[in-house]
Design brief:
Blueprint lengths: L1 H5 L1 H27 L21
Length: about 55
C-alpha cells in the first residue's frame, strides 16, 4: 500500500496518457471505417495517394 501511495502521481499521469492514446486510436479506426483521410488533409496533393487505402 505504501508503494501505491508513493507512486500515485505517476500512476495517474500514466492512466491519463493511456486514455489519450486510446481515444486517438479509436478516432483513427472510426475514420478508416468511414473511408475518410486519417492524416488530417485531403488526398489530392498527397504524394502517397495511390499507395494508401483511400478511394
Amino acid at each position: 500500500m505504501d508503494w501505491l501511495i508513493a507512486n500515485l502521481g505517476t500512476i495517474i499521469v500514466g492512466l491519463v496518457v493511456a486514455a489519450v492514446i486510446a481515444l486517438i486510436a479509436v478516432n483513427i479506426i472510426r475514420k478508416r471505417k468511414k473511408g475518410q483521410s486519417t492524416c488530417g488533409c485531403g488526398c489530392a496533393d498527397c504524394p502517397m495517394k495511390n499507395k494508401c487505402g483511400g478511394k
